[in-house]
Amino acid sequence: MIPVNEPLLGGRELEYVEECVRTGWVSSEGRFIAEFEKAWAAYCGMEHGVAVSNGTTALELAVAALGLTPGDEVIMPAFTIISCALAAIRSGAVPVLVDCDPGTWCMDASHVAERITPRTRAIMPVHIYGHPVDMDPIVDMAAKHGLSVIEDAAESHGAQYKGRRAGGLADLSCFSFYANKIITTGEGGMVLAKRADHSERLRSLRNLSFRQDRRFYHTEMGHNYRLTNLQAAIGLAQVENIEEHIRRKRWMGQSYTEQLKPLTLINLPVEEAWATNVYWMYGIVLSDDVDYDAIEFASRLRRKGVETRPFFLGMHEQPVFQQMGLFVGEQYPITERIARRGLYLPSGLTITEEEIGKVCSAVKEVLS
Ligand SMILES: *Cc1c(COP(=O)(O)O)cnc(C)c1O
After folding, report:
1. Domains of the chain in sequence order
2. Quick check: 122 pLDDT over 90?
């Protein structure tokens, strides 16, 4: 079986982790936390970095930093991971969905305006599978209506929008460094902020809202969402190597596209003229001319030794949210379609040319 994802740990990870162990700096203090935060914020073109325990807690803290009140609304794509909706709900806010673009599979900016109400406080674009969202219309709309923008750039480390990095295009941005992301700390995440007041609030919420002036005296409910120095040590080594990670992902994406583009029965990832796709995962979507769905497609590929993963199921179709009475009667046709007809192919950072060739042969055989 060719694995779907594999990290690349080819730099100074061991050396840095060894330093943590040797010096005893293994918890959430130590030089690597601050250095990792600084390096990642600088790479993305943001002012402040606040390292946290994972991408889900990064989103939770970013929403919490806005200080929303119950009933406030956060606009986000229907096609995303559940972490986005959870972050809004756990802040007492209501997630409001928009459908995605059929080409990029990212939030369709042209549907955002019709979802704005007097309760809207924020927009949360998610850069899907390595391709950035068309951000300018979203940022303009947010400015016009006085809304905050939180980017979820967990899948798009290093991707570019009009020459600027994903995660450097809004007030706040969130990253995951889970083992399948482009750079990893095993488990981990970060919130980047432009504003110092956001950064301070994030730091406080990350660490149980201890006060600087009086340690065990609390004026709000914080969290323990700290990252360890051990994880940040790996993270710093990964950032030092990110150009190699991106080079590999782009080579993988372009190799797949080269070999699969003659096939008319599948849609491939796109790269808009204003974007640099980092192909976090190489997704493909079955055309309507195929008379089976992605689940059947995946099992046919598995029989040929190719492991795949399904696309996200839309937030409005999640039983947990339906039971809560959310999104009743709402439909997002593009999201519904790609959720049923999309999957992603092996996209690990260590995939070889030969493995890509095998995967493409299997896809061609199944579709022939
Ligand atoms: C992976 C991911 C997350 C969640 O990150 P975790 O570290 O697994 O909590 C959030 N958003 C997106 C878009 C992701 O792909």
Report:
1. 13-240 (3.40.640.10), 242-367 (3.90.1150.10)
2. yes
